[in-house]
Specification:
Elements lengths: L4 H41 L6 H25 L4
Helix pairs in contact: 1-2
Length: 80
C-alpha cells in the first residue's frame, strides 16, 4: 500500500514541528539551569548587599517566564 506524497509531507512537517518544539524545550531547560546557577552564585556572593534584590529580581522573572514556556511545550509534547 502506497502513501500519498501529501500525507508524507504533512507527516514530515509534523515531525519537523515536534523536533523543533523538543529542541526549544531542551534549550529552555538549559537556560533555566544556567540562570538558577547564576542566581545561586549571586545570592552567595552578595548575601548582605543592598543590591541583592536589584540583581536577582530580573533573573527570577526570566526563570518564571522560562517555566511558563516549558509548561506550554510540555503540554504540546505530552510530557506531563
Amino acid at each position: 500500500m502506497e502513501s500519498s506524497p501529501i500525507k508524507d509531507m504533512s507527516e514530515l512537517d509534523f515531525m519537523k514541528s515536534e523536533n523543533q518544539k523538543l529542541r526549544n524545550y531542551i534549550s529552555l531547560i538549559s537556560a533555566e539551569m544556567e540562570l538558577s546557577q547564576r542566581l545561586f552564585e549571586i545570592q552567595h556572593n552578595f548575601t548582605n548587599s543592598p543590591n541583592l534584590k536589584r540583581l536577582t529580581v530580573p533573573i527570577l522573572d526570566r526563570i518564571t517566564k522560562i517555566k511558563s514556556e516549558k509548561a506550554v511545550l510540555e503540554t504540546e509534547l505530552n510530557l506531563n
